[in-house]
Protein 1
Amino acid sequence: MRLDKFLANTGFGSRKDVKRLLKTGFVTVNGQAVKDAQHHLDLEADKVEVRGELVEYREYIYLLMNKPAGVISATEDDRDQTVVDLLAPYHQRFNPFPVGRLDKDTEGLLLLTNDGQLAHQLLSPKKHVEKTYFASIDGEVTNEDIQAFKYGVLLDDGYQTKPGKLVILKAGKTSEIHLTITEGKFHQVKRMFASVGKKVIYLKRISMGSIHLDETLPLGEYRELTMDEIDLLKSHHFLNKGE
């Protein structure tokens, strides 16, 4: 692999950024400074360092965040803090982006990656990837609501949702539920409950496909996915479900 591609793929910026970095002489291969962007590397044998720090080859990163309320699911914004702002500089170098979005006031599981193909697969309507939410509802959720969601409900713009699986955890003046859907329309969970005359007062995503929220992660914290979790995301069964 060419040295400039190696550095670009490991988060040191664009090819132009990498060429500027190489000119500084801070990049060494096996202890020798290399300024030639076209220098070819043996990924198995060569040791690349930038400013004395060893660089491990990584093209993609996969992160699991416990998104807090008040932060938006975007890579940059002029007014609000974004989920990318919560990442360490090392992970920001890879230019990750959120896979889908959670509303600003919604908490919970959010995946971030720079693997565009995987993100496309996870978000494709054809894949029917299930997303499960925990919510507190102002009002008593009933068996009639379960049946309505089972067949899909009519949103305020006339859109008929696909079936959703509603489970009542606690019913009363304030109810607690789990809702599993395969779509990601704007404010969908809130609008689904509004269609049956109820209001969502707290919302948290707890799973996406086979990946579940790591409850040990404090709000605003994140970790890299394990190899097993990455394999689950990339598995043929998961990514081809529903085709």
Protein 2
Amino acid sequence: MIVNNLNAFVHDTTRVLIIGSMPSVQSLQKKQYYGNPRNHFWGIIAHLTNEHVPDVYEERLDLLRRHGIGLWDAIASCERQGSLDAAIKQEVPNDFAALFRAYPQIEAVFFNGGKAFTVFKRHVGLDVLAERHYEQLPSTSPIPGKNIKSFDEKIDVWRAIERYI
């Protein structure tokens, strides 16, 4: 099955861009980034910003906007059955060169997991990140992987974004 990602959530005050691989089936159905309630993303962001996780998705996006955080995915479209990154085939990357031209104020790019970083590096290249801090963080996915970390361990590593928000 061919799947397409969500639109970039980026604005004029975005300083931090968090790049995932491809939204889960549940997220795509909801048309919401990190729409699986078991995903640790919103809990981590709430913890790092010292705010609560809003119930309403638009309020979640407002939380990100207030803290200069944007979201997009490395993959624009791909073939995939289910939600696992391991099932992704024939990925087509998003146009990050155009995004960074449109939003030059983005200072830091954080990759939510290894697949996002690998796809970005392979298809886009790290040159587009010149003069920007970038870092791969552990995935916030609730799906077990080879580098499983607890919520608290993820928060410790995700603290890297604090200096930019």
Protein 3
Amino acid sequence: MDVVPERQVEEGEEGLRHSRQSSAARFLRRLILVVLVVLIAPYLLILLYTPPFVHPVSTLMLADLALLRGYERRWVALEDISPNLVRSVMMSEDGQFCRHSGVDWGEMKAVVQEALEGEATRGASTIPMQTAKNLFLWNGRSFVRKGLEMPLAIAADFFWSKRRLMEIYLNIVEWGPGIYGAEAAARHHFGVSAKDLSRRQAALLAVALPNPITRVAGKPGRGMQRLAGVVERRARNSRDYVTCIYQ
């Protein structure tokens, strides 16, 4: 009996299996390489964004461009943004901005404890964390995003000065559909430049930040006005809390 054809069939099947395994291994290696590049790229961009002449764009801006919606953003230096807005945003969003190193671990611990106890949790994002999210990640709550966000915030706080961090944040944060940054927001909502914002206008912009789509700074309801009054008072008394920005 001739067994050569049978042997050839077995060798062919073995070669096919080997080819499939090799293809799967190559695909896996490429996938791992892509994941590593995606994970490392933001840290390289943090270094790239350090010089003041670099004007970063956020993932939301890129999404608007990709969807052919466009966006409005006029980059301005921190010196050309009213201190009223800087103080209001800091006291509304991150009162310990000058004291932590990217993550407010005390606040984070309290939020984790509330979650473990089954209570409704409040936000614990710092300005560096929000900056990292806006620049490199996506909206929406998830443990994956938070896990990526925290080390990026620590890296940004390490490589950037507090002034640079605040400057980038105030130039990329969203203040309405397609409205990004303090200058575009000030002109859109109040018809003034960012450097001319009053205390109440600045407080309204700060209060709008948690949800700038439903909270319209230029058309505040009674609830927004009440919250803006609280933020305005805190900003007026901020003094020691803003020493990393204003000595």
Protein 4
Amino acid sequence: MNEKIPETSDGKSAESRPSILKIAAIAVAIGAIAGAGGIYATGMLSGNAGGTETACAAAIETGASLKPLLTGEVAAMAPRTQANDLSGLTFNDGDGNAITLADTGGKPRLVNLWATWCAPCRAEMPALDALQAEKGGDDFEVVAISVDGGDDAKPRAFFEEIGIETLGFYHDPTIGAFNTMKKEGLAFGLPVTVLVDSQNCVVANMNGPAEWASEDAYRLIDAVKAKNE
């Protein structure tokens, strides 16, 4: 399970890192309490439905072919059965410049929305960093986007605190990326993760945390990379 986006946050860091399963259980209760705090979509991606269906047909086929690999630590990842083109998803790069997901394209990517106040997000961030270290390169990238409000200080401090070494820094203080994913039927809380192909079309998605530094995750990413060759 995952955490709803709350209206306010105390910004406190956890003193210890509980297991993913324990964090997920806690998030169930938090989500029930904080339901009224969810952010609702205010816009949608450009492009007509027919064009998106055509452009993303290959992504849906890829998702279906990967279904046997969506087990174990990545069992919550579901193949997408409807077309979602996230080319216009907007956020800031490490220099504070506005970019779109298409600007990171040309390769499959695992796009993760997270925040420092989200306990499951904090717990899985080291695993996402490990996934980038193990599988990242010209043919794959983990695009982890902080949706913390305000400037970059808090999410950058968290990266430093837990020793993130390989993830690029991306930030969306407007929460527009979350709004877009919610409108597309992809996001219900945090963390949310989508696997997109080289054309920015969604192959599979999941709400809630996962153990990305695992053989299950590595096999999935290897298969996605192979299909992009």
